[in-house]
Design a protein that fits this description.
Elements: E1 6-9, E2 27-29, E3 35-43, E4 48-53, E5 56-62, H1 67-76, H2 78-93, E6 107-110, E7 113-119, E8 127-129, E9 134-137, H3 145-175, E10 181-185, E11 192-194, E12 199-203, H4 211-223, H5 232-241, H6 246-254
Helix pairs in contact: 3-4, 4-5, 4-6
The structure holds zinc ion (ZN).
Zinc ion is lined by residues 220, 224, 230.
């Protein structure tokens, strides 16, 4: 589900008073307790349009529509606004690549935490500081987006090799399951796979998620060493490995690789 984040509403000029009203923005409170910044722009347009962008509401309205009428329109659309905010939050939480381009200051996710990229020609190696949420790359300020992406992806793959293997081994030994082989995959279509002879592959991009999500995918593939289908018996195996897997399963199902 991906609601559009822009609404345009027809408006009947006869209904409104012709008095132009000054337009403070302010904050809009939603019935669920959230509030968001609101900006109202007036122009010579004929309709009122609402747009959710970066967690704030932008209203574009004809110059002659009174503020009370704008408020009435917003009021009638609060549920739509809440849905847009939900969708935006979800997209942000599942973001696998920086929002903007690969540049100094771009934000990525690592183990579920926001992590900002810093270009720092003064450092010799890539340095990740979890407390500061910073990933320092030994690259000059004029590094190209491709260079930055390749360094970050290379670093993540190295991290993935260790972290994913460790989680897989931990879960397997906790329930006495065995797998034959582990390798990283970079498939664009799946998060993990398991062959009938017990070769488990996990997508390196999983390291961008919190550990429970990584664990769910690892548990899923481990369960396939017992059942190759997705029968109720298979899900029983998943639950034995990771009793509270359902929330993580939802996260990964909604995420795009
Ligand atoms: Zn499966």
């Amino acid at each position: 589900m991906n609601p559009t984040d822009q609404l345009s509403l027809g408006f009947d000029q006869q209904e409104a008073s012709a008095t132009p009203v000054p337009l403070p923005g302010g904050h809009l409170g939603l019935p669920d307790g959230r509030s968001l910044p609101m900006e109202i722009r007036r122009s010579r347009r004929r309709t009122i349009s609402l747009q959710i962008q970066a967690g704030s509401l932008r209203v574009s309205a004809p110059t002659w529509v009174p503020r009370s009428e704008i408020d009435r329109v917003i009021e009638s659309k609060v549920r739509w606004i809440a849905r847009c905010l939900d969708a935006e939050e979800e997209r942000a939480a599942n973001r696998l690549e920086p929002h903007e381009e690969w540049c100094d200051g771009a934000e990525i996710r690592f183990l579920g935490e926001a992590c900002r990229i810093r270009l720092d020609a003064g450092t010799a190696t890539i340095d990740w500081n979890a407390t500061e949420g910073l990933l320092r790359l030994p690259l000059p300020a004029h590094a190209s987006p491709d260079q930055i992406r390749d360094r970050v992806h290379g670093w993540m793959q190295a991290q993935a090799e260790d972290i994913l293997r460790e989680r897989l081994e931990l879960l397997a030994s906790a329930v006495g399951l065995q797998f034959q082989r582990f390798s990283l995959s970079s498939a664009r279509t799946r998060w993990g796979s398991c062959t009938s002879d017990g070769h488990i592959r996990l997508n390196w991009r999983l390291v961008q998620f919190p550990l429970p999500v990584i664990d769910y995918v690892a548990a899923h593939e481990l369960a396939h060493t017992r059942a190759m289908d997705h029968s109720p018996g298979f899900w029983d195996e998943v639950e034995k490995i990771m009793p509270n897997y359902r929330e993580a399963k939802d996260v990964i199902r909604r995420a795009r690789i």
